[in-house]
Amino acid sequence: HAVSREKTEQYDRKFLQIHDSFIVAQTEEGFVIIDQHALHECIIYEDLCRRIRKNKLQSQKLLIPESFEVTVSGAEALKANAGLMDKLGIELVPFGPRTMAVQAFPSLLSSVQPVDFIQDLIDLLESKDAGPDADRLLDEVLNMAACKAAIKAGQKLTDNEIEQLLADRQSAESASRCPHGRPTTIKFSISDLEKQFKRT
Fold first, then answer.
1. Taking a C-beta distance cutoff of 8 angstroms, is the pair 62, 105 a contact?
2. What is the C-alpha to C-alpha distance for residues 71 and 100, in angstroms, rounded to an integer?
3. Which residues neighbour 130 within 8 Å (Cβ) at sequence distance 6 or greater?
4. Phi-psi region of 81 (alpha: psi -120 to 50; beta: other; left: phi over 0)
5. Is-contact 159 106, C-beta < 8 A?
6. 132-163 residue pLDDT tens
7. pLDDT digits (tens, 9 = 90+) for 57-114
8. 176 near 183, Cβ under 8 Å?
9. What is the pTM of this model?
């Protein structure tokens, strides 16, 4: 905990959330404007990639399995990608004719609705040609997972949540761009401001 406090000190504890979507934070050189969704998505994506490289994602059993309808092609897509499902820590069981249930789901994605995620995952798997590049497919799935789990634009954050986001930004290797390639942060220096106000 002391580490994250130390890392946020360079922001001088001066920050502001604008329209519940952007964070403006003071830095030593000037200030930054952060897209809260894009930054959080980037942090989650990196964390997922790091963990999945070492092992499969840790999952937790759902107290009540969540059932959903599945088409024949959807069931086949899930079966063909059983290794990927195992890596993600997702456990599905048959639940009747054309119905399956989510029994376990990745702990890191606790903010995501399991059935919503599985249905989008099936759509993604069905849209791929047979025998796709496994690494690229996994990357696309992790992109989707990070996007769904990230703080949304329009979501009001507490000061503690903002501080945590700013601290995590320091430890993320590629926090300057989200997985979709969009910038997460725009920097302004004091001299940029001075030019704008014609002080130079």
1. yes
2. 10
3. none
4. alpha
5. no
6. 578 889 999 999 999 999 999 999 999 999 99
7. 999 999 999 999 999 999 999 999 999 999 999 999 999 889 999 999 999 999 999 9
8. yes
9. 0.85
